[in-house]
Amino acid sequence: MTKKATQSGVGENREIPGWTGRLFEDFSPGDIYYHPFGKTVTEADNQNFTLMTQNVAKTHVDRNFAKATEFGLPLVNSTFTLALVTGQSTIDLSMNVFANMGWDEVRMPNPVYEGDTIYSRSKVLSTRESKSRPNLGLVTVATEGFNQNSKIVISYRRTFMVYRQGHLPSVASARPDESSLPLIEDAQ
Known about the structure:
Largest sheet: 6 strands, antiparallel
């Protein structure tokens, strides 16, 4: 079987738009999103985040100290866990965010250890149009992060402002000419 390159006919080039995120009108109370990305937390993640944020808690960076605690291992910095789970939810919830309004009721019911893999899910609790900004809406979600054993390690409520349909700022991006892409091949 040989393949023949072509620039026309069946199999013409077509641009397929990528995921561009949800807008206010795409959210409904009761919607549940299992966010697609998990992350195995490494020692480097924990150490770097802890040191970068000037958190001096020995339980995050001193393995010998952590051995003497009831946990026996270093605990992953809780604000790293909050940042990670918020980041995991972005693809489904806030790619088109205008602003985060706040995190409430943040709870850490189980520890996170280096080597744990964290996943997350969110449920839409409420939506409302912004009274002061007609181009935006407010969405409140409950988010949970859980580990590879399905144990909830963090839960919180988050409210964010997101653009409404027809109001997302557009940015023209520079694109090279498509002639540098290879020709498509037809099966012969």
